[in-house]
Amino acid sequence: MNYQKNIIFLTLFIFILFPQFAKDLPKGYKNIQLGMSLEDTKTNLIKDSSFGYHGERDVSLVPSNQTTLIETDSQRGLGSSFLSHCWFQFYDEKLFIITINVNPKRMDYYSIFTTLTKKYGEPDTISPNAASWKNDEVTLSLEKPLTLKYIDNETFDQLQNYSNIQKSAEEETRQMFLDEL
User: Residue 118 and residue 108: Cα distance in Å, rounded?
Assistant: First the structure.
């Protein structure tokens, strides 16, 4: 019994003092990495035809919340036969979500799930619709039918918190209006 406690304590001690032993997840796919600037991402998308990026016409801006989105269609030209649509979401010109839809005619969920499990260990969460791996910096999720997502946790959490604050103020204003009736 003491032996098991010692092993557990030693394991926790190693992970606390040496965070490099924590799950090392990729920060993106191929040469597109979370945290890249909008311009660097465009440049790398142009260099890699597998994403099917066609230039500025694939970029849209949402000025109200400092969000930019690049949408690509790999099936519309010289893109990869394994990819279909991809989305690259930016906040403050920093890439924080990469969404890759994989072509189900060329690949299957089980093959990707098995590969990710071999590389990164068992998922942190799993459900009938998705599996996800997470560390302090990145969440990697595999969603059905066949979507890979790379998420910058810090930016995502920041936007979630901002969204919650925004919602609360909206709710308060709504209640104030109702109270005046």
Answer: 16
Chain-centre distance for alpha carbon 10 = 32
Helices marked H in the chain? 2-17, 38-47, 109-120, 153-179
Q: How far apart are CA 100 and CA 52, in angstroms?
A: 12
pLDDT tens-digit map of 117-144:
999 999 999 999 999 999 999 999 999 9
108 close to 146: Cβ distance less than 8 angstroms: yes
Number of Cβ within a 10 Å radius of residue 96: 22
Distance of alpha carbon 142 from alpha carbon 148, whole angstroms: 5
pTM summary value: 0.76
Burial of 20 (0-12, 13-18, 19+ CB in 10 A): exposed
